[in-house]
Amino acid sequence: QSAPAQPASVSGSPGQSITISCTGTSSDVGSYNLVSWYQQHPGKAPKLLIYEGNKRPSGVSYRFSGSRSGNTASLTISGLQAEDEADYYCCSYAHLNSYVFGTGTKVTVL
Amino acid sequence: QVQLQQWGAGLLKPSQTLSLTCAVHGGSFSGYFWTWIRQPPGRGLEWIGEINHSGTTNYNPSLKGRVTFSVATSSNQFSLSLTSVAAADTAVYYCARRRISGILINAFDLWGQGTMVTVSS
Fold first, then answer.
1. Side-by-side strand order, sheet with B3-8
2. Alpha-carbon distance values, B11 to B21, B89, B91, B116 (Å)
3. CB distance B47–A96 less than 8 Å?
4. Strand B77-82 to strand A98-101: parallel, antiparallel, or no bridges (unpaired)?
Protein backbone atom coordinates (compact mmCIF):
# COMPACT_ATOMS: atom_id res chain seq x y z
CA GLN A 1 0.00 0.00 0.00
CA SER A 2 2.00 2.98 -1.27
CA ALA A 3 1.23 6.57 -0.37
CA PRO A 4 -0.38 8.59 -3.17
CA ALA A 5 2.17 11.01 -4.58
CA GLN A 6 1.84 14.73 -3.98
CA PRO A 7 4.23 17.49 -5.07
CA ALA A 8 6.61 18.31 -2.23
CA SER A 9 5.90 22.01 -2.51
CA VAL A 10 3.62 24.47 -4.27
CA SER A 11 3.77 28.23 -4.03
CA GLY A 12 1.69 31.18 -5.10
CA SER A 13 1.14 34.87 -4.53
CA PRO A 14 -1.75 36.25 -2.50
CA GLY A 15 -4.96 36.22 -4.51
CA GLN A 16 -3.77 33.57 -6.93
CA SER A 17 -5.12 30.03 -7.28
CA ILE A 18 -3.01 26.94 -6.78
CA THR A 19 -3.72 23.26 -7.30
CA ILE A 20 -2.25 20.32 -5.40
CA SER A 21 -2.38 16.91 -7.05
CA CYS A 22 -2.67 13.54 -5.36
CA THR A 23 -1.81 10.65 -7.66
CA GLY A 24 -2.69 7.18 -6.48
CA THR A 25 -3.56 3.93 -8.17
CA SER A 26 -6.58 2.07 -9.42
CA SER A 27 -6.70 0.41 -5.99
CA ASP A 28 -7.30 3.62 -4.07
CA VAL A 29 -7.85 7.07 -5.60
CA GLY A 30 -8.95 5.64 -8.94
CA SER A 31 -11.44 3.17 -7.52
CA TYR A 32 -13.29 5.28 -5.02
CA ASN A 33 -14.36 8.91 -5.02
CA LEU A 34 -13.53 8.90 -1.34
CA VAL A 35 -10.59 11.25 -1.14
CA SER A 36 -10.37 13.70 1.73
CA TRP A 37 -7.99 16.62 2.15
CA TYR A 38 -6.41 18.01 5.31
CA GLN A 39 -4.61 21.22 6.20
CA GLN A 40 -1.92 21.12 8.88
CA HIS A 41 -0.23 24.15 10.37
CA PRO A 42 3.10 23.63 12.19
CA GLY A 43 2.68 21.95 15.54
CA LYS A 44 -1.06 21.52 15.07
CA ALA A 45 -3.37 18.62 14.35
CA PRO A 46 -4.66 18.30 10.78
CA LYS A 47 -7.99 19.91 9.87
CA LEU A 48 -10.49 18.39 7.44
CA LEU A 49 -11.04 20.55 4.34
CA ILE A 50 -12.70 18.28 1.77
CA TYR A 51 -14.37 14.88 1.97
CA GLU A 52 -15.68 12.44 -0.65
CA GLY A 53 -13.66 14.20 -3.30
CA ASN A 54 -15.45 17.53 -3.51
CA LYS A 55 -17.58 18.18 -0.44
CA ARG A 56 -16.79 20.83 2.16
CA PRO A 57 -17.65 20.34 5.83
CA SER A 58 -19.53 23.12 7.54
CA GLY A 59 -17.25 26.02 8.35
CA VAL A 60 -14.62 25.39 5.66
CA SER A 61 -14.05 28.26 3.26
CA TYR A 62 -15.49 28.06 -0.25
CA ARG A 63 -11.96 28.89 -1.46
CA PHE A 64 -11.10 25.22 -1.03
CA SER A 65 -12.42 22.84 -3.67
CA GLY A 66 -11.71 19.26 -4.70
CA SER A 67 -11.95 17.18 -7.84
CA ARG A 68 -10.81 13.87 -9.28
CA SER A 69 -9.86 12.52 -12.68
CA GLY A 70 -8.81 8.92 -13.02
CA ASN A 71 -6.18 8.05 -10.44
CA THR A 72 -5.50 11.69 -9.56
CA ALA A 73 -7.38 13.84 -7.06
CA SER A 74 -6.79 17.56 -6.80
CA LEU A 75 -7.25 20.31 -4.24
CA THR A 76 -7.57 23.88 -5.49
CA ILE A 77 -7.11 26.87 -3.23
CA SER A 78 -8.46 30.04 -4.81
CA GLY A 79 -7.79 33.57 -3.62
CA LEU A 80 -4.65 32.42 -1.81
CA GLN A 81 -4.17 34.04 1.60
CA ALA A 82 -1.24 34.19 4.00
CA GLU A 83 -3.10 31.92 6.42
CA ASP A 84 -3.21 29.19 3.78
CA GLU A 85 0.52 28.60 4.21
CA ALA A 86 0.59 25.09 5.67
CA ASP A 87 1.06 21.44 4.80
CA TYR A 88 -1.71 19.67 2.89
CA TYR A 89 -2.45 15.95 2.78
CA CYS A 90 -4.82 13.90 0.71
CA CYS A 91 -6.23 10.65 2.07
CA SER A 92 -7.96 7.92 0.12
CA TYR A 93 -10.02 4.93 1.06
CA ALA A 94 -8.15 1.84 -0.09
CA HIS A 95 -9.23 -1.77 -0.26
CA LEU A 96 -10.01 -3.95 2.74
CA ASN A 97 -11.34 -1.13 4.92
CA SER A 98 -8.09 0.80 5.09
CA TYR A 99 -7.01 4.35 4.37
CA VAL A 100 -3.82 5.76 2.91
CA PHE A 101 -2.50 9.31 3.21
CA GLY A 102 -0.64 11.10 0.46
CA THR A 103 2.97 12.18 0.80
CA GLY A 104 2.05 15.75 1.68
CA THR A 105 2.57 19.17 0.08
CA LYS A 106 4.00 22.31 1.64
CA VAL A 107 2.19 25.41 0.41
CA THR A 108 4.11 28.68 0.52
CA VAL A 109 2.47 32.05 0.06
CA LEU A 110 4.99 34.35 -1.61
CA GLN B 1 -18.44 20.88 21.70
CA VAL B 2 -16.96 17.45 21.21
CA GLN B 3 -13.28 17.10 22.03
CA LEU B 4 -10.73 14.31 21.96
CA GLN B 5 -8.17 14.29 24.76
CA GLN B 6 -5.28 11.86 24.51
CA TRP B 7 -2.45 10.81 26.79
CA GLY B 8 0.27 8.21 27.24
CA ALA B 9 3.96 7.64 27.86
CA GLY B 10 6.18 9.86 25.75
CA LEU B 11 9.54 8.10 26.05
CA LEU B 12 10.09 4.41 25.44
CA LYS B 13 13.05 2.10 25.01
CA PRO B 14 13.30 -0.26 22.03
CA SER B 15 11.24 -3.44 22.41
CA GLN B 16 8.86 -1.85 24.91
CA THR B 17 5.12 -1.44 24.33
CA LEU B 18 3.56 1.89 23.39
CA SER B 19 0.24 2.59 25.10
CA LEU B 20 -1.96 5.58 24.37
CA THR B 21 -5.53 6.41 25.37
CA CYS B 22 -8.00 8.88 23.92
CA ALA B 23 -11.13 10.12 25.69
CA VAL B 24 -14.21 11.48 23.95
CA HIS B 25 -15.66 14.46 25.77
CA GLY B 26 -19.05 16.00 25.08
CA GLY B 27 -20.34 13.68 22.38
CA SER B 28 -21.56 10.27 21.38
CA PHE B 29 -19.22 7.29 21.46
CA SER B 30 -21.30 5.04 19.24
CA GLY B 31 -21.77 5.72 15.56
CA TYR B 32 -18.09 6.31 14.88
CA PHE B 33 -14.87 4.55 14.09
CA TRP B 34 -12.18 5.77 16.50
CA THR B 35 -8.93 6.08 14.65
CA TRP B 36 -5.21 6.29 15.31
CA ILE B 37 -2.90 8.17 12.93
CA ARG B 38 0.80 8.91 13.37
CA GLN B 39 3.34 11.33 11.95
CA PRO B 40 7.11 10.82 12.26
CA PRO B 41 9.06 14.04 12.80
CA GLY B 42 9.19 16.06 9.60
CA ARG B 43 7.27 13.44 7.66
CA GLY B 44 3.76 12.63 6.49
CA LEU B 45 0.71 11.07 8.08
CA GLU B 46 0.19 7.33 8.40
CA TRP B 47 -3.14 5.68 9.14
CA ILE B 48 -2.65 3.07 11.86
CA GLY B 49 -6.19 1.74 12.12
CA GLU B 50 -9.52 2.10 13.89
CA ILE B 51 -12.07 0.56 16.24
CA ASN B 52 -15.77 1.20 16.81
CA HIS B 53 -17.80 1.05 20.01
CA SER B 54 -18.61 -2.61 19.55
CA GLY B 55 -14.97 -3.60 19.02
CA THR B 56 -14.88 -4.01 15.25
CA THR B 57 -11.37 -3.17 14.07
CA ASN B 58 -9.52 -2.30 10.86
CA TYR B 59 -5.73 -2.25 10.74
CA ASN B 60 -2.99 -0.92 8.49
CA PRO B 61 -1.59 -4.11 6.99
CA SER B 62 1.97 -2.86 7.54
CA LEU B 63 1.45 -2.72 11.31
CA LYS B 64 -0.94 -5.60 11.80
CA GLY B 65 0.51 -8.05 14.29
CA ARG B 66 2.02 -5.36 16.52
CA VAL B 67 -1.07 -3.18 16.99
CA THR B 68 -4.06 -3.76 19.23
CA PHE B 69 -7.02 -1.46 19.81
CA SER B 70 -9.45 -1.54 22.70
CA VAL B 71 -12.50 0.42 23.81
CA ALA B 72 -13.98 1.26 27.20
CA THR B 73 -17.51 2.32 26.37
CA SER B 74 -18.41 3.05 29.99
CA SER B 75 -15.85 5.86 30.04
CA ASN B 76 -15.95 6.84 26.34
CA GLN B 77 -12.32 5.95 25.86
CA PHE B 78 -10.32 3.98 23.32
CA SER B 79 -6.71 2.86 23.39
CA LEU B 80 -3.77 1.91 21.18
CA SER B 81 -1.13 -0.65 22.04
CA LEU B 82 1.94 -1.09 19.80
CA THR B 83 4.39 -3.80 20.79
CA SER B 84 8.11 -4.18 20.15
CA VAL B 85 8.66 -0.52 19.35
CA ALA B 86 11.75 0.67 17.52
CA ALA B 87 13.19 4.05 16.56
CA ALA B 88 11.03 3.99 13.42
CA ASP B 89 7.94 4.20 15.64
CA THR B 90 9.00 7.63 16.92
CA ALA B 91 6.18 9.95 15.91
CA VAL B 92 3.36 12.20 16.98
CA TYR B 93 0.36 9.95 17.48
CA TYR B 94 -3.11 11.38 16.89
CA CYS B 95 -6.51 9.98 17.75
CA ALA B 96 -9.34 10.96 15.40
CA ARG B 97 -12.99 10.28 14.58
CA ARG B 98 -14.69 8.87 11.48
CA ARG B 99 -18.45 8.48 11.18
CA ILE B 100 -19.89 5.04 10.49
CA SER B 101 -22.92 6.23 8.53
CA GLY B 102 -24.36 9.32 6.93
CA ILE B 103 -22.09 12.11 5.78
CA LEU B 104 -18.38 12.30 6.49
CA ILE B 105 -18.08 8.52 6.71
CA ASN B 106 -14.79 8.42 4.89
CA ALA B 107 -13.04 11.36 6.50
CA PHE B 108 -11.53 12.24 9.85
CA ASP B 109 -13.45 15.25 11.09
CA LEU B 110 -12.24 15.53 14.67
CA TRP B 111 -8.69 15.11 15.96
CA GLY B 112 -6.96 14.93 19.30
CA GLN B 113 -4.10 17.23 20.19
CA GLY B 114 -1.42 14.67 19.41
CA THR B 115 1.10 12.89 21.65
CA MET B 116 4.81 12.83 20.85
CA VAL B 117 6.27 9.39 21.44
CA THR B 118 10.03 8.94 21.25
CA VAL B 119 11.72 5.56 21.12
CA SER B 120 15.34 5.75 22.19
CA SER B 121 17.77 3.63 24.11
1. B3-8, B18-25, B77-82, B67-72
2. 15, 11, 11, 8
3. no
4. unpaired
Percent of chain A with pLDDT over 90: 92
Tell which residue, B74, B87, B93, has the closest CA to residue B21. Answer: B93
Nearest CB to B109 within list A57, A96, A99 = A57
pLDDT tens-digit series, residues B68-90: 999 999 999 999 999 999 999 99
Strand partners, A64: A77
Rounded to whole angstroms, how far apart are CA atoms B28 and B19? 23
Q: Per residue in A43-73, pLDDT tens?
A: 999 999 999 999 999 999 999 999 999 999 9
CA dihedral angle for residue B75, residue B66, residue B117, residue A86, rounded to 10 degrees:
-90
How many residues appear in chain A? Answer: 110
Hey, are the CB atoms on B106 and A55 less than 8 Å from each other?
no
Give the phi and the psi of residue B88 in degrees, each rounded to 5.
-65, -15
Query: Is A64 an 8 Å CB contact of chain B?
Result: no
pLDDT tens-digit map of A71-98? 999 999 999 999 999 999 999 999 888 9
Inter-chain contact B107–A96, Cβ cutoff 8 Å?
Answer: no
